[in-house]
Structure formats: structure tokens, C-alpha cells
Amino acid sequence: MSRRGVGLALRLMGLGWYIAASIILGIVGGWWLDRWLGTLPLFTILGVIAGSGVAFYGVYRMILPLIGNNGANEQ
């Protein structure tokens, strides 16, 4: 495997970890808030939604340099 291929594989593996960590932290944070406030499903569901949103935005920002800007900065 070439150096570029290894770099791409590591970046993609990092994306997977980023997605998993974002969603898991959202779930755990929501679950903790639910236990503290006594509102069991509410903040867990909001944590999943927030974690997913953070994950997808982060992935978008991370892959943007890989796909190039395709004229996105042109005015």
C-alpha cells in the first residue's frame, strides 16, 4: 500500500472513531441528565440527536479537504 493509501485509511478510521465518540458522548450525557432530572427518555433522545448532528458536521468538515472545494469559495 502506498503512503497516500495509508494516510487515507488512517483518516477514514479516524472518521469512524469520531462518529462513534460523538454519538456515544451524546447518549451518555443525555442519560446522565435524565437520571439526574428524572426525565428518562427525553435527554437521552436529545443526546442521540445532538451527537449525530455533531458527528455529521464534523465528518463534513473533515472530508471537505479530501473532495476539494469545487469552487465553493469563488464569488
Low-confidence stretches: none
Structural class of the helix and strand makeup?
mainly alpha
Radius of gyration: 17 Å
Largest sheet: none
What's the rounded overall pLDDT mean? Answer: 88
Tell me the fraction of residues in β-strands, as a range.
under 5%
Percent in helix: over 70%
Number of beta strands = 0
- Written as H for each helix and E for each strand, in order along the chain, the element string is HH
Number of helices: 2
Oligomeric state as shown: single chain
| CA-based shape | elongated
Distance between the termini: 39 Å
In short:
The protein is mainly α and 75 residues long. 84% of the residues lie in helices and 0% in strands.
Kindly describe this structure.
There is one protein chain. The chain is mainly alpha-helical and 75 residues long. The protein has a domain at 16-66. The chain is built from two helices and no strands. Helix 1 packs antiparallel against helix 2 (40-67). The longest helix has 35 residues, at 3-37. It is elongated. The termini are far apart. 11% of the residues are buried.
Features:
2 helices; 75 residues; single chain; mainly alpha
Compile the SSE list and pairings.
Blueprint: H1 3-37, H2 40-67
Helix pairs in contact: 1-2
